[in-house]
Amino acid sequence: MSENKPKPSNQTAEHLEYEDIAPPPSILRWVIFATLMFLILLVLGIIGGGWAFREVVPPRYQVYYSEQFPILKVLLPPRPANDAVLPTPIPQENSISLEELLGSPVQTPTLAEQTPEPVATLPPTEVATVTPIPTLTAPPIATATSLPQVTESSALSGVQLVSSAPSKARNHGFTYTKQTWNNCGPANVTMSLSYFGWLEDQSYAQNYLRGNREDKNVSPQEIEAFVNNQTGVNATYRIGGSVNLLKQLIAGGFPIMIELGYAPEGNDWLGHYQTLVGYDDSIGSFYVMDTYIPSPDGLAVPYLELDRNWQAFNRTLIVYFTDEQETTVTTLLGDLATVEGGYLKALETAQREARENPQNGFAWFNLGTANSLLGNFPAAAAAFDQARQLNLPWRMLWYQFEPFRAYYETERISDLTALINSNLQTLGNGFVEETHYWQGKAYEAQGDTLQAQNAYRQAIQQNARYQAAIDALEQVG
Q1: What is the reported pTM?
Q2: Contacts of 131 (CB under 8 A, 6+ apart)
Q3: Is residue 287 a contact partner of residue 274, using CB atoms and an 8 Å limit?
Q4: Which fold has domain 128-134+162-337?
């Protein structure tokens, strides 16, 4: 007699079937663990990649890749607000009053002994081949019989459109140069030199002027030294220029570079060089070749607009000429024929503009710069104190360094250090050698020789030809 065994229920059968295909508990735990580890590593990779993109990748590649892949823009270093960069100055009990800064007559002060503005010293090298300089003849232009009388705004009353220059002039023979990354200085130098038959491209000037590809600033002094020592052409740098002077130099057939504040569409304010090739009073504009915006035929920029932007750099100009043209250039420069004459002209202009508009931060900054260059350091520091309260652009101290000198010479080391730290924060990795140089001077003033040495070495690392830092490092160590 056979034993009747009960058949398993459907539930039991399904359960057995599930057990047959289910992985062992140990394998399941490893799958979960591996998945979690993958997710953790993925998150860490994203975080680490974002940090590396912001802190390690050179700025030029940050910009390039963020333009190709806009999502990467969220990883770019944050930009400061325009009104939140320069620290507020510490009140000074015996500071020179604003009335004294603006009310005293402009006189030639005694030039104090001071460290020259740091510039790159260029070693002798083989001069690039230059074709014979052509005879440059300006196109026929008609002398204006009646130039328009223009009423200027109070902030720009120094702009005088009526002058002895012809009503229009245009110089031809430039080879347009489109700048590479952050290379407006070398590109404009190359473009200006092409007027004289210069055949090298912008990389030649870049190799001297920007040994570090991330260098944020090429100073006018460095450009002047490069042209005079390396090209067979002459260059003279001055501050304190004017619209009339630019017109007279252009009419004389001379290439001119200017440095000015610049904010192309979609970008923050920054410093920029442009080359002036002509002007026309009938439209009230200069013709400008801009290495950033393609402009081989020249952009028409109104006199007042150009002067307003030019004011941010104390109306800096660099004029190019041959040996045979030196006397003519000296005559046309007039008050600016000498370095001190340019400083005095800049001082006079800044005083007038600060009186007319006390809220003009650029006017006060220019007043400080002119006083510092003339050796009037207490007056310079007082003017910079005022400028720092008037919302200057946050890149201002990437390009102009007289505040550092003025505070150093007046032994206001805390102010000097505050500006240095602010500059280093906005620079990221600190790609302006002058900032490190003045940091070294601040450490020296505090008796910290070791830190001073490190700062000078950092400056030299940014620019191996930076003679002021080289000399300072030798002196401390």
Answers
A1: 0.77
A2: 197, 199
A3: no
A4: Cathepsin B; Chain A (3.90.70)
**Using CB atoms within 10 A of its CB, is residue 67 exposed (0-12), middle (13-18) or buried (19+)?**
exposed
| DSSP per-residue letters across 354-395 | HHH-TT-HHHHHHHHHHHHHTT-HHHHHHHHHHHTTS---TT
Which amino acid is present at 198? W
Domain ranges of the chain: 128-134+162-337
Taking Cα atoms as reference points, which of 374, 319, 365, 325 lies closest to residue 345?
374
Two tokens, residue 325 = 């043209």
Joined together, the tokens standing for residue 423 give 């500059």
For 120-255, where are the E strands, in sequence order?
168-170, 234-238
Terminus-to-terminus CA distance in the chain, angstroms? Answer: 112
Q: Say whether 276 sits in a helix, a strand or coil.
A: strand
Residue 87, pLDDT > 60, answer yes
Tokens of 373: 């260059």
Q: How far is CA 437 from CA 229, 420, 423, 472, 473, in A?
A: 24, 10, 12, 8, 10
Q: What is the pLDDT of residues 267-279, one digit of tens each?
A: 788 999 999 999 9
Q: Which of 5-9, 41-45, 106-110 has the lowest mean pLDDT?
A: 106-110
Distance in angstroms (rounded) separating the CA atoms of residues 376 and 461: 32
Q: What sign for the dihedral angle of Cα 360, 362, 364, 366?
A: negative
Q: How many helices (H) and strands (E) does the chain have?
A: 18, 7
For residues 190 and 206, is the Cβ–Cβ distance under 8 A? Answer: no
DSSP 401-428: -HHHHHHHHTT-HHHHHHHHHHHHHHHT
Question: Helix or strand or coil: residue 256?
Answer: strand
